[in-house]
C-alpha cells in the first residue's frame, strides 16, 4: 500500500512541475535514488507530502 501511495505522490508532484512520468519516465536508477532520499528524510518525522515535494523539487532543479 505504501509503495503505491508513494508512486502516486511522486507522479502528482512531478505533474505540478510539468513533467508527466507516463510520457517521460524516470530511469530505474533515478527512481531508486529518489525513493532512498524520501525514506531517509521521512525518518525525521515530517509529513509525506513535504518530503516528496522537497525531493522532487531538488531533483528537477539539480540541487541533489
Share of residues in helices: 55-70%
Q: What's the oligomerization state?
A: single chain
Number of discrete helical segments? 3
- Main pleated sheet: none
Query: What is the H/E string?
Result: HHH
Strand content: under 5%
Radius of gyration: 11 Å
Distance between the termini: 27 Å
What spatial form do the alpha-carbon principal axes imply?
globular
How would you state the average pLDDT, rounded?
A: 90
Element layout with pairings:
Elements lengths: L1 H15 L11 H15 L5 H13 L4
Helix pairs in contact: 1-3, 2-3
What labels would you give this structure?
64 residues, 3 helices, single chain, mainly alpha, globular
Summarize the structure.
This protein is mainly alpha-helical and 64 residues long. The chain has helices at 2-16, 28-42, 48-60. InterPro entries: YqzH.
Descriptive account of the structure:
- This protein has 64 residues and is mainly alpha-helical.
- The protein has one domain (2-60).
- 67% of the residues lie in helices and 0% in strands.
- The chain has three helices and no strands.
- The protein has helices spanning 2-16, 28-42, 48-60.
- The N and C termini lie far apart (27 Å).
- The mean pLDDT is 90.
- This is YqzH-like protein.
- Pfam families: YqzH (PF14164).
